[in-house]
Each structure stands twice: as C-alpha cells, then as structure tokens.
Amino acid sequence: MEKIIEKAFINSFNDLCCQVNEKTFRHINESVYRYLFIKHLPEGIGVEDEWHRIDLLLHDPEFQYPIEFKLYDTRPLFLIGMDEQGKKGGAGNKNFQEFLNSAKKLAELRNENFYLKKRCNFKKSYFVLIAGDRLETGKKRFDYWYCDQNRHLAALAKMDIKSQVIAQEECVKSSLKIFGWVIEVGLT
Q1: Would you say 66 and 56 are in contact if contact means Cβ atoms under 8 Å apart?
Q2: Secondary structure (3-state) at 141
Q3: Domain boundaries, position 127
Q4: What does the alpha-carbon distance between residue 65 and residue 104 come to, in Å, rounded to a whole number?
Q5: Structurally, how many domains does the chain consist of?
Q6: Which phi and psi (to 5°) does residue 124 adopt?
C-alpha cells in the first residue's frame, strides 16, 4: 500500500501543478487535493473520506490505512475594489501545532473506541502536506516545512511518534512554488 500511496501522491501532485497557477492555487483546499489524490488510486482500493474524523481511509481486504491532509497557502487578501490588504496564512506556530495534533491523532487511532467496535486493523497511517509559497511573501513555507523536515520529524520523535518521509515533490509556477510530502506516522 505504501507504494500505491506514494504513486497517488506523486501523480496527484503533478496533476495539481498542471492545473493551477499563482492566481488559482488560492482556491485549492484539502478536499480538492484529496479528490485529486483519490482520482489517482488504482481500481479495487477501498476509499472512505471523512471516516471518524479521518480525512481519508484506504483499505484492502485485510488492513486499513488512515491519511490526514493539510494544505497551506500564504496568499494576498483583497477588499472589494481595493489593493492588497495584507496576507492570509503563513508558516508559524499555529500551523506547526496543527501538524503535531494531526500526527498525534493518527498515531493514537488504536486507542479510540471505534477501533475495537468497527474491528479496525490499521497497518500504517500517513500525513500528506501540500503548501505554496509566493515569491513576494516574507517567511517562506518552503523553508519552514520542506527544507526543515527534520525539525518536524524530531518534534514527533519527542512525542514518541515514529515517522519517516516516503515521498516529496516540488514545482514552480511563475511566482508560486508548490511543494509537498507524505510521511508515514507510526501507530502506538
């Protein structure tokens, strides 16, 4: 399944990069990206979205594979009829805490009541991050999320959560750099 997830990520990432530019990327969200990801899964893979507050659950006859998605974009904010009024988003502690909370949720799924009730058999769990940087913004998400992945993996290790990067991609569309990665998050 890991190879299937890796391939779906790479293909959906490339699909995304072909479809957006610096103006339209602002309209992509986690649900839209999840659709692209699902579109690139092979036939015969079971797919459930928003299953017990898990963004995506893939399954085969024996195991299930929960996946969380995060999509971040630092984009300009405009008031009607006016020039840019600032930026929305930006790499920072709030996004980092969201990442840690989502990864912890994935790692602790076996402790949830539904796990036994639904006869779940989670083998591995995954976290997919997609983000975009515009050249004109200040603090770059690329530096924060992509170049400094060790910071994120080290923070998970301090929480006794094993993790590893299984795929990463990047592309540039004019003044927009899009990047992303998939990490496997160890279940406890």
Answers
A1: yes
A2: helix
A3: 2-185
A4: 15
A5: 1
A6: -140, 160
Distance CA 138, CA 32 (A): 26
Residue by residue, pLDDT tens for the chain (188 residues) are 999 999 999 999 999 999 999 889 988 999 999 999 999 999 999 999 998 889 999 998 889 999 999 888 876 666 666 665 656 665 567 778 888 888 998 888 877 777 666 778 888 999 999 988 877 655 555 555 555 567 788 888 899 999 999 999 999 988 888 989 999 998 65
Cα dihedral across residues 60, 64, 65, 69: positive or negative: positive
- Rounded to whole angstroms, the Cα distance separating 188 from 160 reads 9
And the tokens for 106?
């994935």
Contact 175, 136 (CB under 8 A): yes
Answer yes or no: are the C-beta atoms of 66 and 125 closer than 8 Å.
yes
In sign, the C-alpha dihedral spanning 51, 73, 179, 21 is positive
Nearest residue to 32 (alpha-carbon basis) of 46, 48, 16: 16
Q: Answer whether 0.85 is exceeded by the pTM.
A: yes
* Residue environment code for 64-85, b if the CB has 16+ CB neighbours within 10 A, otherwise e: bbbbbbbbbbbbeeeeeeeeee
Q: Which segments of the chain does DSSP mark as H helices, in order? A: 2-19, 30-39, 93-107, 113-117, 141, 149-158
